Amino acid sequence: MPTLTEFTRVFARIGVLSFGGPAAQIALMHRELVEQRPWLTDAEYLRALSFCMMLPGPEAMQLATYSGWRLRGTLGGLIAGLLFVLPGALVVLLLAMLYGAYGDVPLMAALLRGVQAAVLAIVLHALWKVSKRALKGRLHWGLAITAFVALFVFNLPFPVVVLGAGLIGYATARPGPATAQPPILWGQSLRPAALWAVIWLGPLAALWLLNAGFLFDIGLMFSKLAVFTFGGAYAVLAWLSQAIVQDKGWLNLPQMIDALGLAETTPGPLILVTEFVAYLAGFGLGGIPLGLAAAGVRAIAFDLRVG
Q1: 128 with 21, same domain?
Q2: CA angle at 232 for the pair 82 and 14, rounded to the nearest 5°
Q3: Model pTM score
Q4: CA separation, residue 85 to residues 23, 79, 110, 186, 306 (Å)
Q5: Model confidence pLDDT, tens digit, residues 132-163
Q6: What total of structural domains would you count in the chain?
Q7: What is the pLDDT of residue 150?
C-alpha cells in the first residue's frame, strides 16, 4: 500500500505526461504501476484493462481510476481519475478560449489549416491500427462496413448502430468454458450506484427545472454521449460530429477538426475534445461566460459518468 503522498505524486506525473492517446497512456501507467514499483501485478493490470475496455468512455481514464481505487480505495480512485484528467482539461480549456478569441486571425487560421491536414492523417492511421487489432474475421469486417454505410450513407443515429452491432456480436458469440463465479453483493453495488446517479443526473434535472435551454441541451447531449462512447474517442467522433455539426449546428466541420487536432497535442484522454466543443458552442452563442458554463456542464454530464 503506497503512502497517500507518494500515490498522489505518481498519479500527478502520469496526468502531466499522458500524451499520445490511449495506447501510450496505458503503456505509461504500466511502467509506473507495474514495472517501476510493485503496486500492481501484471495479471491484475491486464484484467483491469480488459474490464475497462468493455465499458463506455476512455479506457485509459477508467484504468487510472480503477488502479487508484485498488490501491487507496474510493479516495484513491477519485484522486487518480482527477489527476489523470485535470492537467489536460485545463490546457484544453485555455486552448479553446484562445481559439474562440483569435481563431479568425490570419496567422492562427493558417496554423490551424496545417493542423487539420495532420489530424486527418492521424485519424486514418489510428483507424488502420484499430482495424488490424479488432477486425479478425469476415463477420467483423462485414459489421464495420455495414456500420460505415449506415452512418455515412443512410445517416442513422450512432446509438442505433452501436446497439445493433452489439446484439449481432452477442448472438454470434461462442460461449467459453464455464467457471465458478463469486456471489454478487447487490447491496454493496446498488448503494454507490444510486449515489453517483443522483450526483450525475441531479444537475441535469436542475437545468431542466430552471428552463436553462442551451445548457440543458449540452448536458443532455453529453450525458447520452457518455453512455455510448464504446471504443474510445475515435469510435465516437462520428456521433459527436453528427450531433454538433449536423443536428445542432453549433460548430462547423473545420472547427471540429481543429478541436480534435488541438486535443491531440495535450495530455489526458483524447475525449477531452468534448470540452473544446462545448466551450466553442457556448462561446458562439453567448461569449466567454456561456462558454465556461457549457464546459462546466459538459464536465458534470460526461466526465462524472465515464469516470
Answers
A1: no
A2: 35
A3: 0.69
A4: 16, 10, 29, 30, 11
A5: 656 777 887 888 888 878 877 777 776 677 77
A6: 2
A7: 81
